[in-house]
Amino acid sequence: MKENTANDKLTEAEKLTYTELKSTLTSAGAIRSICRDILTADDFSDLESLLSEHYRRHLSSRNSKGLPLADMVMTSARIFSEMVDPDRNIIVAMLLQPLHRFGLQSDSDISSRWGDDVLGLISGIEAVRRYSSRNNATNHDNFRGLMVALAHDIRVIIIMIVQNLVLMRSINHHPDDSWVRNVAFEANYLYAQLAHRLGLYKIKGELEDLSLKYTNREIYTQIAHKLNATKRSRDQYIAEFIAPFRKRLEKEDFKFEIKGRTKSISSIWNKMKKQKVDLPGIYDLFAIRVIIDTPEEKEKTDCWKAYAILTDMYTANPARMKDWITVPKSNGYESLHGTVMGPGNKWVEVQFRTRRMDLVAEKGLAAHWRYKGVKGDSTDQWMANIRDILDAGEAGPMQLMRNINMDPFGKEVFAFTPKGDLFRLSAGATVLDFAFHVHTNVGARCTGAIVNGRNCKLNYRIQNGDTVEILTSANQEPRLEWLQIVNSVRARNKIKQCLNEQKQRLADLGKEALMRRAKNRKIDVDEATLMKLIKKQGYKYALEFFADMGRDKIDPGRFLNTYVDEVNREHEVEKTSAEEYKIVSKDSGEPANDVLTIGEKSISGLKYKFARCCNPIYGDKVFGFITSDGTVTIHKTDCPNAPNIRIRYPYRLIDAEWSGKTGNALPATIRVIGIDDIGIVANITGIISHEQGCQLRNISIDSNDGMFQGFLVVTVSDTRQLTALIKKIKTVKGVKDAVRM
Question: What gap in Å lies between CA 77 and CA 140, rounded to an integer?
Fold first, then answer.
């Protein structure tokens, strides 16, 4: 009883409130419940003993900003378990990291009891924190890269994102306004962007909303109040929009769920600024999500079929269609977004996804580990590599991620200027690379650098986290040997540019000397003849030639003598011409809507058109392809584009066949080859004009060496009429062949 604890000496302001204590205990209980299958009884017992002892005896109940330390730690671990993935090592690392940070648990203590993986996670978190205070608004992309490079484990980045979310939730009405704004700014440009890359959309949206709330509370409050005021009418409109669409999907035997949601406040504010309108002027305040229950092999096909039904009911806006099921986002997000004109002439965004896709969209990278790679920048490519590794795994994502190299910028390094600006350079970059990255003039005048307080030469290789101060001299000029020192393409190009500028100055002097001598001798220099002669002299580029003339390696007078001799030897070049015969007529009307039956279940009423690449006509074997605006394009089965369509978009194909009713005449192209005799074209067009129901729309004929080749576009009612017409054309004297294209 005589022992004084650290908690006994705390002031009332420093002690935890009842609410904070309750929150801490609630989070601890939630962690125990969520993690009961991944933490053993001994794990729970040891963690409880460590945390209760150290938080009570050695750590202040609040951190340096007055926030409850234990509650922040417990809440972070709980949110990670709920919103990302319950993982034994991650939860342990998050709970023990403050103890390690304050020296209450050593590396050996953690490694021996909890394993090297937990120790590595803790070290990664602390490595990132050491650099997080050095960022600024002008280099956030590079700082994000440095943070990733230092973390060495994707799980560390996810931990940092979750911890930042807990911090943002905790600082509402904090008395230090300046600090709050800095935290909010960092959350928006750094952690929200990383959350987006990892597919943690719920966390990303909340971070952006809270950032807006703390940096522009007035705007945030105004939008929030207006959204609340219009909630009832918005819900009513969504219900009115969904009702007929739901019936149509049910009629087509889809198993699905439809949800309506309002966009985040930060997203709405960004649209208001971008479009320069008030809240009523934003036409996509809300989005409707259609979640389809379907096997994985039918996911894409069913999403596109549902989209086709929607666009058949409502007018689509193809410009706003986003297809992320053909090519998913870099973070694995898959969904098909369409925007249509709903009741009252309001644009409505509808998202189509399956249960599996929705799981990925809700929980991000850790929710599902069977992703497909896509192209992108270095971070996106790294994400794709992770997905390739996870694709073959049978364990949970967090277990597999432990062995993945975290650094997506493995071929890059990051260094600071003395003012704190951060630059990203290619791996192996030297002081000279850094100098040219700062500015071309700095690089051109560079003589060395002071790196971390010591003098270094031009060829010193930059290390992660170096602080580099470039030294320059007005007498310094780029040299050819510098190309062997630099490693980056940027610096190499800049050096070549400087060397070329030097060469250009010499070339200008040489060309000026040549033109001045030609003017004195009253010789008009033809540019084409000049270039031809320069190549005959063995120069690939005129710049090299004139630079040598500027260096006095070539005498202008002697070269002019050679030029005059070349001009005198030139002869006139014979020219030939070809004639082209071409007649164009106007396009005719659209096909009737009852000519085709579309879909396995005979989905009627869909808009369709005939593909111009193959011009199908009645009687051809055809198939349908659903375009971005919901229209079905009809192609011949042997269309030149058919193989590519079947390979790339098999899920957007739909059956189509002729209904038995002929519609308007459709265009077909006939290629005719024959002898170029007088009157043969008139004989061919005469046959077409006498064919009942047939019209010539376009004819283009080229002749060469007594033969001609022509392409005739004619309108016919069906394949039988076209076949009969081709037979008649073949009977014309001089026609060697006639085939349909």
Answer: 27
